[in-house]
Amino acid sequence: MTIITVLLTFSALGLISLGLYLLLSPDAGRRLNGRLMKGGLVLNMVLFAAGVAGLLIGGINEVMAAEEAATGGGDISLGLGLALIGVGLPTGLATIGAGIAVSSVGSASLAVITEKPEMFGRTLIYLGLAEGIAIYGLVVSILLLGRI
Predict the structure, then answer these.
(1) CA pair distance 138, 144, nearest whole angstrom
(2) Range of the domain at 139
(3) What sign has the CA pseudo-torsion 70, 74, 77, 83?
(4) Which of 68, 89, 101, 123 is most exposed by smallest CB count within 10 Å?
């Protein structure tokens, strides 16, 4: 497990150092062979994905072999588990709705601000109203959690 972690660390550091090198010297990207650079980048990304998959598989094996997991672990009933899922649903669905609303309002407000900069304050109010949807979902979840 530590070998995979070390390889992932070196892979991430390699990607970061290549990015910094190309950022600091833009002419270096033109001098490097494009085919060789693409091949190295693809190889690094494949090794990184394989390392992450190895960490996930190794982590699952360690968790499944744990003694607490084998004995059952806790006294949460099916009803309590479903109730906890029901408590989390309003927050999750409200944040998805808020994200959709903020994306629409945000793009429209940027278009309005480019044409009329004095509309900046109004667009902030609309963005705040759209973001309030997520806060309403959180409040409902907190109220439902108090009922359990």
Answers:
(1) 10
(2) 78-147
(3) negative
(4) 68
